[in-house]
Amino acid sequence: MKEAKVVKSTGSWYTIQTKEGDQINARIIGKFRLNNVPLTNPVAVGDEVGYELEEGDETSAIIKEILPRKNYIVRQSPRKKHQLHLLASNLDLAVLVVTMVQPNLKQGVIDRFLLMTEPQDISAAIIFNKADLYEEADLEFFEYCQAVYESIGYQVFLVSCLTKIGIEQVRQLLQGKTTLIAGQSGVGKSTLVNTLDPNLELRTTELSDYSGKGQHTTTFAEMHPLNDGFIIDTPGFKTLSFNNLEPMDVAHNFREFFILSNDCRFPDCTHRNEPQCAVKKALEEGEISELRYNNYLKILEEIEDQNYWERHRDL
Hints:
Strand content: 15-25%
CATH class of the largest domain: Alpha Beta
Distance between the termini: 36 Å
Radius of gyration: 21 Å
Order of helices and strands: EEEEEEEEHEHEHEHEEHHHHH
CATH architecture of the largest domain: 3-Layer(aba) Sandwich
Number of domains: 3
């Protein structure tokens, strides 16, 4: 059996790249699961796989094995809420692209994205795109977000593909890395990648005049060579939900809350109404972000509102 890397996933077919650099269409036979959780797409871009050529066809292969993953990013499937959607694997970095305008920022999306990277210890960065469109209030909120997220160890960049602000810093950030790039529809993700490397020519679309919301331009995940590394472009998303997490998973993966939780009275403190909670104390004293804490509460509420047996129907 030979080995290759998955560089494109359309849901039913995959493109794998061999050690020699050749690309072959491939499919899977049978079922693959992730920690006994059903997946909408069991093979991810970035996966190293074992394959065999189909009999009598040198241009088509069958994926027989998924080699051990260094890490992976997974989200709740937007269409099948009981299943997980595997975005990518074997990453050095995950980048979230947001913008303050066109479309307006849903700030909660940052914390939801970090809740996908943090459990796998994947380094994450946040890029605020379309800086040329920001007014003074937008820049002030950017600076607030930058202070919040840099203070807890995430990298934050202000970028404009038009004026080239921040482009060189992002190019250096991606140097030699395998990077996932993600974002809500319309934030300029594909334009940013094209600006980093004009040779890629990823397809872009203007915002919808009617809704002001982004149109999906990337319809499947695909890996491209970039700056001595690789970038994995993913479809734009509208929301991020978590059928794979329990409340304590959320508490443990808000990194500054987890550090403070050592001083909470109860080891299973959810940092809401429990007495002698170090996180609530830090919130009252202005040591942690109120905005991030409120996002944390919303995610907990969503997870608890999903019926337990719906989330554990295989039990």
